[in-house]
Amino acid sequence: MTILKIEQVSRTFPARHGNAPTKALEPTDLVIGNNDFVTILGPSGCGKSTLLRIVAGLDRPTSGRVTLDGREVTAPGADRGMVFQSYTLFPWLTVRENIAFGLRERGVPQDERNKIADAFIRQVGLSGFENHWPKQLSGGMQQRTAIARALANDPKILLLDEPFGALDNQTRALMQEMLLGIWERDQKTVLFVTHDIEEAIFLGSRVIVMSARPGRIKAEIDVDLPHPRSYKIKTTPEFVQLKERLVEEIRTEALKVAEHA
Amino acid sequence: MRPLDPVTSKQRVVYGLAFFVLFVALWSWATFGGHVSKTFLANPLTMVQEGVELLTKHGFLFDIGMTIWRVVGGFALAAIIAVPLGVLMGAYKPVEAFLEPFVSFARYLPASAFIPLLILWAGIGELQKLLVIFIGSVFQVILMVAVTVGATRRDLVEAAYTLGARDRGIIRRVLLPSSAPEIAEILRLVLGWAWTYVIVAELIGSSSGIGHMITDSQALLNTGQIIFGIIVIGLIGLLSDFMFKAFNAWLFPWRLA
Question: Membrane-spanning regions, if any (chain B) (predicted)?
Answer without folding.
Answer: 12-30, 68-92, 104-124, 130-151, 186-206, 226-247
